[in-house]
Design the sequence.
């Protein structure tokens, strides 16, 4: 299940800080760029596969309509039989996406919407 489907019940299993540091936009959650690596580490520990990250900014304080600044594109093979390898590879790609996000130009804080699946 994806984070957006699992919602609060799964995120509380990751730790209270995960939900506390998130903002909710519709049915999705996002974290400040400065928190994203911590969230990725928590997802890795929980053996979740990260499907992608969108980088957002908000032009006002309402946190209602994000402007998408960029997104990750992972070439993951969903037919892999070894879930742990799938988790490891997705986390490597997610971390690389965070490094590349330094190229994103924004006058506003950048938020990361992370999509994952649970085992």
Sequence:
């Amino acid at each position: 299940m994806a984070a957006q489907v699992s919602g609060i019940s799964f995120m509380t299993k990751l730790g209270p800080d995960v939900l506390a540091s998130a903002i909710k936009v519709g049915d999705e959650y996002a974290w400040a760029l400065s928190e994203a690596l911590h969230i990725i580490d928590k997802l890795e520990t929980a053996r979740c596969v990260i499907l992608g990250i969108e980088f957002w900014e908000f032009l006002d304080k309402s946190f209602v309509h994000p402007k998408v600044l960029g997104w990750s594109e992972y070439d993951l093979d969903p037919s892999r039989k070894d879930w742990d390898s799938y988790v490891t590879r997705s986390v490597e790609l997610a971390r690389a996406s965070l490094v590349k996000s330094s190229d994103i130009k924004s006058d506003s804080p950048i938020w990361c919407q992370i999509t994952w699946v649970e085992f």
